[in-house]
Every structure is written in C-alpha cells, then in structure tokens.
Amino acid sequence: MESQLARIEQSLNARYTLWVREALDELHHNFTITDPTISGHPIVFASPGFLKMSGFSREQVVGNNGRIFQGPKTNRKTVMEIREAIREERAVRVHLLNYRKDGTPFWMLFQMSPVFSKEDGGVVHFIGVQVPIRRNKKLTDDGADAACNEIAFGSCRREVCPDSLVELTRVLALDTDTNCKGVKIEESCEASELEKQRAATAINDILSVLTHYSESTGRMVCEKRCSLPAAGLINSSLNISLGRIKQSFVLIDPHLPNMPVVYASDAFLKLTGYDRREVLGRDWNFLNGVDTDSSTLHQV
Questions:
Q1: What pLDDT is recorded for position 234?
Q2: A GO molecular function for this record (predicted)?
Q3: Are 167 and 184 in contact (CB under 8 A)?
C-alpha cells in the first residue's frame, strides 16, 4: 500500500508529470493545491510566493491542510463557506483572516477553484489562491515609519473587539522589522478590483499549467466539469469525511453491476496491502481465496 507521503508525492507527478512542480514554481502567485481524494484533504503543493508570505517552509505545509493557517480571529462563518464550496465542488471567493507562522494575522482575498478530471468528471484537486489585501493607511503620528504608508494588511472592525487594546494591537501587527506607530484602522477589509483581478489571473495561469501537463500523461483535466461524474464516484466532501474514520472498511455500490468497491479506507489498504487503484471499481470478491469459507460468503 502506498504511504500517505507517497500518495501526496504522486498526486501531482502521476497526473501531470514530474516537471509540473518546476513550472508551478515559476508562477509569481501565492497559492496552494490540495487533493480531496487523500485522507485529510492535504496540501500537495505550495508556491514559493505563498511560503514567503506565510513564513512556513514547504515541509511544514505539504501534507497539512488549511487549518494550520487559521487562528482565534479567523471567521468561522467564512471557513464554513469554503467547506460548503468543497462539498458542492464549486469555486468560491471570500475575504479571510489568516495567520503567519509567527502568529501575525493578515487579511487576504482567498479564491478557490476545483480541477476536474476530463475522463470521469470527478474533482482531482482544488486550487487555492491567496492575495493579501493591501491598504494605504493614514498615519496619525508624523514620526511613524514611512514604510507603513506603503503596505499594510487590512483589518475589519467586526472581527476585532474594540474594547481590547491588546487584541487590537495584535490584529494590526505588521512584520517585526517594521516599526509602525499610529496606524489608523480601516472599516472595511474588502479587496480592490485590482486584487480580485489578480486572484482570477492566478487561477487561470495555474489551470493553464495543469491542463498543459495533464496532456502529457493522457489524464487530462479541465476547469469545469467536462462530463457527468462516473457512476459510483464518491464526491469530494464525502471522501474527506470518510477519510477521518480510522477503521478498516470499504463501501460498495449495490446499484452498479457486480457491486464494485467505490471507497476503501486507509486502514483497509494497510491491512490488505493493496493500493487504492487496485481496489476501486473491482468486485469485492477479489479478496476471496482458496481458504475462504463458502458458508460465510453465503451469509454475506
């Protein structure tokens, strides 16, 4: 059975060739790519721009999911919007407060888009683009650092307790090497039209790379569902939920000919030694052998 690490590695390599990572690295966008077919819906790629923005190393990000960037002031309603989009396998664009590795909060425009298999219509990846929401702040202290007037990450009053000076200072915190005094809070964290355009451009650039390299393997992908999902295909949300169950089990579809296996848990694969691709779509009777008790099979 493939290990979790091997599956993460093969998530891009098998579908887009080994060279896709190099091409993605050359894109000047902040983004991650996740795989909903792997238990935990982990990040399988993080761009250099995203790593620089977040302060995390690639080793700390790949294999984890987006929860590691959330914190006490992250809007749970917005997180649920993202989860609902994953469940419905559709694109979404929201404003989200995330946290860097050093604990500094920052507002960003988060745009997510599914990547569909052209062959069976299933979602194979999600692209998540992060564009920092930048604002020119008015300084109330003439002696404040001029650098603060150039770039400051926005904040929303509704996300900050106005009576807590400590929390207010935390949310307005910038990089530790910038000494910003008297930064005035803005009422809105709405992204500008330019920032929205940057996010849309990034999605298109990334999809273009993935589409191009998928042609090399014959496992082509597309931005929109090009065909109806194949019979027995488990959707992304259910796949993610089932992945949280640690027991050994399979799901079969009695409505399809020969009742094929449509889901196999990681624990089942570990127990049997099979690779997931060797199990899915097969009649569950392939597990039987010469010593399998026929009376027990009859009961099943």
A1: 67
A2: photoreceptor activity
A3: no
